[in-house]
Amino acid sequence: MLMICLGLVDTPEEKNKLERLYEQYRGLMFHVAREILKDEGLAEDAVQEALIKLAKNLKKINEKECHKTKHFIVIIVESASKDIYRKEKKNMTVSWEEIEENYHFPLRERVEELSELTGVDRAILSLPATYRQIFRMKYKWGYSNKEIGEILGIRQSALRQRIARGKVILKDILDEMEVQT
């Protein structure tokens, strides 16, 4: 699986970086994919797709920022798993809504424990996963709409619509929390 992806990068340094990322996060990647897809073979496919996306975006990953890298990888695996789920959904008996309700996002609980979170950070964490991923990538990590669209595999028009809808939901959450924006 990794060998195919190593062919997508040019320099030995990039190959080493991709190998290190895979070795460090492969367990997490498989866990996230299995939780969503409930199938070992499909989970492997999702991890493979995620590795291809990682290889294409390797220059954007700074290994020193472990939390950012971990979040980025989880987002990519979740996106790849959702894409596979959509392709396979006619053969599956579990609805996507049921998966979202029952899937425990691995980083969410840990981040919520941090006392230094602002009201806005807490509100973003309470957004549905679709919007939360985009908001983190755009506003926290500085990715452009084009980059986010390529990474998550969605059109620019759909991305802009999700951002607009997410802002409305976020404003409602902040109003409910009585946080000043």
Primary descriptors:
181 residues; mainly alpha; Rna Polymerase Sigma Factor, Chain: A; Arc Repressor Mutant, subunit A; 2 domains; 10 helices; globular
Polypeptide structure, described:
By secondary structure, the chain is an all-alpha fold. It has two domains: 1-104, Rna Polymerase Sigma Factor, Chain: A, CATH 1.10.1740; 107-181, Arc Repressor Mutant, subunit A. 73% of the residues lie in helices and 0% in strands. It is built from ten helices and no strands. The N and C termini lie far apart (46 Å). Mean pLDDT is 79; it is low at 107-115.
Rg is 17 Å
Which bin fits the share of residues in helices? over 70%
CATH class label of the largest domain: Mainly Alpha
Beta-strand share of residues: under 5%
From the helix content, strand content and strand pairing, which structural class follows? mainly alpha
Output the number of helix runs: 10
Q: What would the principal axes of the Cα set say about the shape?
A: globular
Whole-number count of domains = 2
- The overall pLDDT average reads 79
Outline the low-pLDDT stretches: 107-115
